[in-house]
From TrEMBL:
A single BP term in Gene Ontology: potassium ion transport
RCK N-terminal domain boundaries: 442-559
Family of this protein: Belongs to the monovalent cation:proton antiporter 2 (CPA2) transporter (TC 2.A.37) family.
Protein name in the entry: Inner membrane protein YbaL
Main location: membrane
One of the Pfam families matching this protein, by short name: TrkA_N
Stretches that traverse the bilayer: 24-45, 52-71, 77-97, 109-132, 138-157, 169-192, 204-226, 238-256, 262-281, 293-312, 318-340, 347-366, 386-412
Keywords of the record: Membrane, Transmembrane, Transmembrane helix, Transport
Subcellular location: Membrane
Length: 597
């Protein structure tokens, strides 16, 4: 009946009436099933004190085509979820300005090159010894050479270890691996039969040229065009525009890198690094956070969809042996090359534990190497399934290995000092001191809003010698005033978790909110009490009506403007000459009565 009713409706009218072929809604249903299952299993994993990533991957395996079959279009989901990895790297790049990236040093660059080379050669040699052909062995070596940027960076960031010595080195090696995806992809494509050595050389030259062009264009865009755009009054008045602009920049940088034949994740990271030097970096990172969270969760669920539990059960001994060989081999290789390149051996061990898994881009390499039904590649179906199963298994192990990394480094360092009484290298001592000082520096004062009220508070604090003050404001002029005061300032919306965390909420003793909006103040009180319950919270209240609401929300001290205005007015009135005249006149008029009595 419905088909008869709408069969003569024009196509443009069908769109207006909402009559579609249902493909979009079917894809949305797949995404919703994945996310809902990820929420349930991720929560269970957290309740068991495990990483939520384990729950996300398990969710994909459970509802994927190889088990329950509720979601079958895994390639489309994986393509969408790749944007989540790009947004994750974009957000991380916003934390890494060019000077900070240079401080990573030469160790990650050299270690990354050696790690890829030695892991590839080790995989090639072992595979040939096991009877694989040279082409298939090379594809296996290239696949296991890569580690998981999404999983490792997410875990290190959540554990606040991205700035630890092993975290910085791991990040540098992961970036080198992302750059290596392009040549590895070209090599495997040539082995499948779609290219030659000359084609690979030409493609590498073109990719390098396009990478330089990409950096130059985005550098000019972010340093000359974007600042003027973000200072427009219309963008400051409407919060929707900066959010939309942030999404365009994040997704646009990944798309531009993909169109140029580069790694989208690496392109997004480079764009983030180029943007990190601007004062808008923190707020932009906060604006892309919701979409990044959804897509990264979808990514890990999509990874789980590639798993086939029935095949794993049938080949359990083979899978376990392969997982053990890869984890142990990659850990030892990464440990060896980072130690050889100059990193202290206890931190080299932590880096090795962080990078002992097979990465998400390995799915792409393995898929290309397998080929299609019409055009078979160099990987057999059983080898492809083994690589996919091994990759998922190592990703499931990654949270435990990353949790083990700092503990293992500290234990071995203590044992080394006790047994050998050897002082660690000076740069290792400096790194440890830097970490400890950053963790114990808990004397910050956050001032949220730097209008006249915030400026008066800051002036009084500076007069008594308190200088560790961080100002958060969305008004550029107010931030310029804060700079004149000599204060650290940050452009951002104080109702965003990312903004408060970046400003140092966890290390602050006092948060002073001078913003006039009661709704905004309540949101900030909720976030501060949720994230840092022990921090003292002083809040401005514009109207007496809301005084008790702010106290009930969790503020320690509420400064009531109307009450203070009344007190100030009364004080000035009592000191005024007019009131003194009235008092004298009143006393004179009352004196006859007083004497009579």
């Amino acid at each position: 009946m419905t088909e008869c009713l709408f069969q003569n409706v024009p196509s443009h009218m069908s769109l207006i009436l909402g009559v579609t072929d249902g493909r979009m809604w079917h894809s949305l249903a797949d995404v919703l099933i994945l996310l809902a299952t990820a929420i349930v299993l991720g929560t269970i994993a957290e309740q068991l004190r495990q990483s939520a990533i384990l729950g996300y991957i398990a969710a994909g395996t459970l509802v994927g085509p190889n088990l329950l079959g509720w979601v079958s279009d895994r390639q489309s989901i994986f393509d969408l979820a790749e944007l989540g990895v790009a947004l994750l790297l974009f957000a991380i790049g916003l934390e890494f300005s060019l000077p900070r990236l240079r401080r990573l040093g030469r160790i990650p660059l050299l270690a990354g090159i050696f790690q890829i080379l030695f892991t590839l050669l080790a995989g090639l040699a072992v595979s040939i010894l096991l009877g694989f052909s040279v082409s298939e062995a090379l594809a296996i070596g290239a696949t296991i050479a890569l580690s998981s940027t999404a999983c490792v960076v997410r875990m290190l960031n959540d554990r606040a270890e991205l700035d630890a010595p092993h975290g910085r080195t791991a990040l540098g090696i992961l970036l080198v691996q992302d750059m290596a995806v392009i040549p590895l992809m070209l090599i495997i494509t040539a082995l499948v039969g779609k290219g030659t050595a000359a084609d690979i050389t030409v493609q590498l030259s073109v990719s390098l040229t396009l990478a330089v062009l990409f950096v130059a264009v985005f550098y000019g865009l972010f340093n000359y065009v974007l600042p003027r755009l973000l200072e427009l009054s219309s963008l400051r008045r409407n919060r929707d525009f900066p959010i939309l602009l942030a999404m365009v920049m994040a997704a646009g940088s990944a798309w531009a890198a993909h169109r140029l034949g580069l790694s989208p994740a690496l392109g997004a990271f480079v764009a983030g690094v180029l943007l990190a030097i601007s004062p808008f970096a923190t707020q932009i990172r906060s604006d892309v956070q919701p979409l990044k969270t959804v897509l990264v969760t979808l990514f890990f669920a999509a990874v789980g969809m590639f798993g086939d539990l029935n095949w794993v059960v049938d080949h359990l001994a083979l899978v376990l042996a392969t997982v053990a060989a890869i984890v142990l081999g990659k850990m030892l290789i990464t440990f060896g090359v980072t130690w050889f390149c100059g990193q202290p051996w206890q931190f080299a061990l932590g880096t090795g534990l962080c990078l002992a898994q097979v990465g998400e881009f390995s799915f792409v390499l393995a898929t290309v190497a397998r080929g299609t039904t019409a055009n078979p590649g160099i990987l057999s179906e059983s080898t492809f399934r083994l690589l996919v199963s091994t990759t998922i298994a190592t990703l499931l192990l990654t949270p435990y290995l990353i949790q083990l990394a700092p503990a293992a480094a500290n234990l071995i360092r203590k044992l080394g000092r006790r047994n050998q009484n050897i002082e660690p290298p000076q740069h290792a001592i400096q790194a440890i001191e830097l970490e400890s000082s950053s963790e114990t520096d808990s004397d910050l004062i956050l001032i949220l809003g730097f209008g006249p009220a915030g400026q008066r508070v800051a002036g009084e604090l500076l007069q008594v010698g308190l200088k560790k003050i961080v100002v958060i404001d969305l008004n550029h002029e107010n931030l310029q005033i804060a700079a004149q005061y000599g204060l650290r300032s940050q452009l951002g919306d104080a109702t965003q978790i990312e903004v408060l965390e970046h400003a140092g909420l966890y290390r602050s003793r006092l948060v002073i909110t001078t913003l006039p909006s009661t709704t905004v103040c309540r949101q900030i009180i909720y976030l501060v009490r949720q994230l840092s319950p022990g921090t003292a919270l002083y809040v401005r209240c514009r109207y007496h009506l809301h005084h008790w609401q702010l106290l009930a929300a969790g503020a320690d001290v509420v400064v009531d403007e109307e009450e203070h205005v009344g007190e100030c007015l009364a004080k000035h009135v009592l000191e005024s000459p007019q009131l003194q005249y009235l008092l004298k006149a009143t006393r004179k008029s009352d004196s006859p009565d007083d004497s009579h009595h």
